[in-house]
Structure formats: structure tokens, C-alpha cells
Amino acid sequence: MFAVRTCCLALLLFVSFVNPADVVGQRAEEPDPETILKKAVDFVGGEKYLNAKNQVSRGKFSVIRDGAVISFQSFHDVIVFPDTERTEFKAGKIVTVQTNTGDTGWIFDGNLDKISDQTEEQVANFKRGMRVSLDNLLRGHWRGKATLGYVGRRPASLGKRNDVLRLTYEDGFAVEFEIADDGTPMKAISKRLNPDGEEIIEEDRYAQFIENGGIRSPFIIDRVNNGVQMSRINYQSIEFNSRIPENYFSNPATAKDLKKSLQL
Fold this sequence. Notes:
Blueprint: H1 10-18, H2 33-44, H3 47-50, E1 54-65, E2 68-80, E3 84-91, E4 94-101, E5 104-109, E6 114-117, H4 120-131, H5 134-139, E7 146-155, E8 161-169, E9 174-179, E10 185-193, E11 199-212, E12 215-225, E13 228-240, H6 255-259
Antiparallel strand pairs: 1-2, 1-13, 2-3, 3-4, 4-5, 5-6, 7-8, 8-9, 9-10, 10-11, 11-12, 12-13
């Protein structure tokens, strides 16, 4: 999910993001970032993964504060790679739908029973989410828009270290991905400013990779801001190359028409 994201490492993560030379354990001979990327692609399924045209998933999205879940929603998410997505959220009896296709998008607000176009900010947030997504890195949708570089080795758990790749876009935006020695994608790290102008280090931490049809997917994604967990995505099912109705992402004429296609 594009929108659908450790305290002891927070300072280290900040410093190493800014300056590659400060990453602990950098090798004398810098590895080829494309080789590390290929290892990660092979881990998630290689050609089977790359050839998948769409992804359909279900699960729970939980908001976390002070280490406890304060609210959760069910979700149904459909992605057609590279830049089309429709996500349904359901809390109680209220359903919200967010749909994006490239530079456009619309939202259904179940509280108001109203469909509206997304604002420029909402579309920008979606596009930013795509930039920092694991699929964007592994599927190569960044090519021609960003450069791939090797940062170094960063401490992980139990005395292990991860290789760190960095995508740097033409506008200067950057996102780092940590890859374990066996190719397992571990996390994505990026920075943004909050409304008060304070810098936030955002991490998406991937866990519980499960194979389906030869493709491995993380069934848990934790969003951590400045070392504090903010949310968790728990996937219950992930399927690939499903049949999707032709008009599934189109802006419906009325809320009544939309409700006929709801999956939750």
C-alpha cells in the first residue's frame, strides 16, 4: 500500500542518510548497486515478480500510539503497476475509497456519502508514496527519473549488517533501502518536513515474507517516524495477476454506482 508505512538507531540513521562515508562497515571496494538490487529482486521472485501486472490484497491497517493500537480499519487494495491504485478502507460501517491513476485521483467519503476529486496535495502524497515504495525500487519504475547508488553497510540486528541502496531523484528527493545479505528487503528510509518545518525520518520496515505463486511479499509493514512506530499494515492475502474490471478505477457518476463495486 503506497499510503499504503529503532529508537536506538535513530541518530545513526539520520547521520548515515546525510553522509555515505559515515555508514558503519563500508567496504574498501564499493559493491555494484545493481548487483545488490538484482539479489533483492531474485529474493522476491525474480521474473515471476517482475512479470506480475497487478496485485490485489486484503488486510488490516492499525494506527499505533505509545506502543498500543488505538484504531484499525479493514482494507481492500488493488494496484495495477506502475501507477494505478484503488484502496477501500472500512471502519465500523463506514467505507472510504481512495483511487489514483497517474496524475489524477478521486476519493469517496463514506461519512458524507460524497465523491470528490483529490487535491493537488493528495495526489502529490500518493506520488511520494510511490517513490518510497519497495515495488518502485524492485520493478525499476524509477529508471529514467532517479539514479541508484551504493551507500555502505549499516548495522542491523544480532550483529548483522545490511547493504544500503539510495535512489536520488532529479529534484533532489532521496530514499534509502536496506537489503540483507540473503537479498531480503528490510526497510525503506526517507525524510520529509512536517507542517512545523521539523524534519521527520520515515521508515517502512518489512517483515514476514510469505510466498504465493513463486512471489514473496512482506505481510507486515510497520511505519516508524523518528524511531517511534506510528502504524502497521497486516496483510491477510496477496494475489497477483487477478482479473480486474475495466472501469474499476474510473470516477463513478454517483455514490450509488460506486457502492455496487465495493469489496468491503
